[in-house]
User: What shape does this take?
Amino acid sequence: MAAVTLKGLTKKFGEAAAVDRLDLDIGDGEFVSLLGPSGCGKTTTLRLLAGFLQPDGGEIRVDQKVVSSASVLIPPERRNMSMIFQSYAVWPHMTVFQNVAYGLKLKKLPGGEIAKKVERMLRLVRLEALAARYPGELSGGQQQRVALARALVVEPQILLLDEPLSNLDANLREEMRFEIRRLHEEFRITTVYVTHDQAEAMVTSDRIAVMHQGRIVQLGAPEEIFDRPRTRFVAEFIGKTNILRGKLENGRSVALGDGLKLQVVAADNLAPGKEVFVCLRPHSVRLTPSAEEAEAGRAKGMNLFDGVVQRRVYFGDANDYIVELPAQRLNLRVVAPPTQRYEAGQKIFALADPQQCVLVGEE
Amino acid sequence: MKHLVAIVLVALAALSTSSSHAQDAAMVEAARKEGKVVWYTSLAIPSSTALAHYFMNKYKGIEVIVNRNGSQRVLQIVMSEAGASIKNVDVIHTSDAGHFVLLKGKGLLAQYSPKAAEVFPAGFKDPAGYFYGMRATLSAIAYNPRVINEKDAPKTWKDVLDPKWRGKEVTAHPGYSGIIMTHVLALVKQYGWEYFQELAKNKLHIVQSANDPAQVVASGERPLGVNGAEYFYYKTMKQGNPIKIVYPKEGVPLVVSPTAIAKDAPHPNAARLFTEFILSKENQQILADKEGLYTGHPEVTYPKDKPMLKDLKLWPVDAEELEKRNAELKKRFTEFFGA
Amino acid sequence: MSIPGTRVAEWVAEARGLGFKRFDPTLPVWIAAALFVIFLMLLPLGAIFTTSAYTEKGLSLGNYVEVFTDPAYLKAIWNSLIISFWVGVIAVAVGSLLGWLVTRTDLPFKRAVRALVMASFVTPPFLGAFAWMLLAGPNAGLLNNWYRSAFGSETALVNIFTIEGLIFVMALYSFPYVFSMIANVCELISSDLEDAANILGANKWKIALTITLPLTAPALIGGFIVAFLHSLSLFGAPAILGLPAGIHTITTQIWAFFQYPPRLDLAAAFSVPLLIATVGLIALQKKLLGRRGYSTVGGKGGQKRLLKLGYLRWPAFLLVAAILSLSVFLPYGILLKAALSKAWAMPLTADNFTLGNFSFTFFEYSDTRNAIVNTFKLGILTATAGTLLATLLAYITNRQLLRGARYLSFFVLAPLVIPGIVLAVGLFIAYTRPPIVLYGTIWIMFVAFLTKEMPIGFSQTESTFKTIHPELEDATRIIGANRLRALKDVTVPLARSGLIAAWSFIFIGVIRELSASILLFTPSSKVVSVVIFDLKEEGQIGAIAVLGILLLAVSFLIILSVQWLAGREFFAGSRG
Assistant: This one.
């Protein structure tokens, strides 16, 4: 277990900076995800952590000791870390047992001890029956579990995962997400997890670092990232969202135009008159055809929209609506329970709690 | 009366030459119609192509297709084609007299008496009229004077057995060359197989053709050739290459290279015309002047820097014996020399 | 991906739709394929087996006894085995080192290195042997002369007319096969496999030993087998460098059996073990490479990073350059010199300079002129026929248009197991006598070349069609084009570069073929390689050099044109 500090970390490829003065503090035993679209620098950051790349600027410390900087580079084999790859990277010429035992053999542990540890780990990932098989005979999910076992059995200080689930199908991915979180809670190894899939990040992480163009744009617990995105980019990257544009009137009110005013969560240091964006999640909007309910909601302080159902898409577990607000010439996306069925052309009221209307920065 | 006889004789002579002229013209015409003559020969490439060009210059319109290979290979090809009923070759010429005994025996040769050969001595003619000696050469010793000086150079056949020549000698192979086949038979008859057994101890470089040693000696790769076609050594020397030829006084194998016309020659007239040409005094003189060869034609003169045949002790070899012992000679040579 | 059986059903339905009620359209193709296999392979092979088993006393093993008890013949077999073994070892060492350096490290000038390795591949081994004869003959060889004058020594530095010399030259022209196989495998190994070991605690050397080496091991063994078999079947190099030293190999001995009087029965008996050994080794190789399918294990997204050689970078390059000068620069240089000199061993002064060799070869000596014409005729004929056949067969097997299409591809590739000279023995025995006499014509050579070279064309067209998804055709047909139209508008244009590559592989293979031609030629059907061999026995060095340069120039011209036309790198993608 170890704490990791990244300070001013920079890596350039040619002129472009893939990682740009990145700062991050990871606590001992913490699970942090680096989340972002491809090209944002998350994999480069991970490889810098592993020691496969040397930074051009800044430094990486593990428990206060500098392991990477522009002048220092402790090679990967001496960092006491483990890594899991998108391509699984299980060695096809070794059995499952030999794969998992490899790191322990390098540590020159006695054979009996190795066998014990390997068998225990295989039981943990539920592969004990396949110990003598070759990777070529295993499915993708099984291969990835071999990789997990191999990485964990050496009891590393730090565990690095590089999009480990991208090659698995949807059901397997879901299962493995929980598995990874479960193993983390069992072993409490400091973990850095790179992914572009926000569901993965949400399920597994203590904290998520959303990355964009080589920098961290928001760092926080999953709920915070989801409920209180700080920028438009984060809001749109994490989950579906509506972005409404308007002018800030005072601390809590935004004029959307044509008379509609939106009550929003307090925005601390923004000046009135400024143009702002409001993030409103489709799940947070409640639809009702009843004018009384709408009135009752408004009386309680909710934001109320007058609209017409434009389109309904049925997903089985939800209904996805586009509601047109003719007065503002805006479209609102709303996700409603499957029992709330409204047809296109129907007049409808939409209610939104101001606590769910969040001001977000430009980018 | 004498005058009358003389006139009649002259007239007869005139008639015969003019009729022979007429005959000639007819043959040339027929040859031209055929358009080409296919020649399988073991005469060295520069010499055979030169000869072909002389012919083609003289008789425009008749192409000579030269297929040159070692004597043993020529025979092999002739036999293979005959076995497959392939009628390709017109004129056959190698340096292994034994071949022609064999071919005659198998009925693969045509009988033809070229006028030009009428003056040839007995050793250059098959009495039954199937083949004639087109050229003659010797198998001789040669060395590179830049590497070996005259004092140390071998003078006799036995001299080359000296272990001081180990790694410095080259030999051609009777499995390829008719000249060397003749050479081996001649030396076996003189000194027995022990000669070659002893020679093999000197670890010779083996080449195939009797013409190849000239290049090997001249380049210095192996400065001493223990056998080889004398005419080719001579030619190479005249071109300015460092070669000196030794004609051992105890005797030199004489190789007469016969020529014959194939029985099923596809271009018989061209074949006959070509044969007349190569046996004619004109051509035989060219062979002597330009190609370093000896010939059977009594009127041919030779370059001054070549020994006359009559000044050398010659070891001729019987054609029948060559044919009979062909396989044995090849096998035992290969036994001693490896390949 | 459609199920194999449905395509057959489709095709049959189509044929029925065209009015062929009870006609199975797969039948003519099977008949043609069967005829092909019978005439090109089974007849010659059958001829060999029967001829080897008959002596004057009728059916007996007498020939085998004679061949395997005679010490001279046994020595030839032993020589072949020793030579091929060492050639295999050296070819693997050199080929894999170069393959690894080019694909996995930051070696400088990689494109040039690949091009030069390809030049080594294209050089006919007998031409390389000939050039090395000029370079390293113990007394006149240029390298030895230089050594003697530089160091004042009496002896030679190297003698190429030895078994070691023969092994050296044959390895120089066998290693490109191994290079290609190793390079292909190395490209497929993702760096993740090495990184995973790295982070678990393995340093550079441990990784190479426990990860990289085992992963490439099957390819190394496969490469050894290929190099071994290749050198086993070579004729020219052993004839040029071995015979002058009295060294016979299996191939030169078979050739010797054809000298007059020919012993076809012994030649056949000698060929049979060679054939069996080849079949056995190729089966072994397939088994090795098929197991554990290394390239297909793992998910997508593996990286390929290059290993930094650091201070070893330039020494490694110098080593590579040295190897390539042995196979390319030195031999090509001496060929050029010999072509332009009157006396090849003398320095190339103004006095020694001549263009006479060129005029002799192209204008004066009819043998060479005819041979050049024959070679090009045969090359173009074989390449065109071979490509058409290979395309048709690859299309059929790939689209599984016939029942049991897999077996068809096995038959097409089968000739690869027959060494060239053995094939020639069979063809000679089968077609020199009635009822079918092909001997003496250009057609027996055509048959030999087609049989021998078509597998290479087929493997090229097969892999080409693998990359063209059948759904591309289906998309065209669903819009309204019929199968032929879809072929013309979609498949053929897409396959174009692969077909051109196939054509040129076959063409180049034909023009440099010697081990079969040397047995099957007659004076009217000589080809350039045979003429080179003839001229060598005559010591006509200049003419040989000219012909050799002609062969190389044509080969390179073709390759460059193909790369320009088809826009692809040779050695990129599947080969060999």
Chain C touches chain A at residues 190, 192-193, 195-203, 206, 210-211, 214-215, 217, 292-294, 296-302, 305 (CB under 8 Å). The CA atoms of residues 379 and 507 of chain C lie 5 Å apart. Strands of chain C lie at 54-55, 58-59. Chain C has a mean pLDDT of 81.
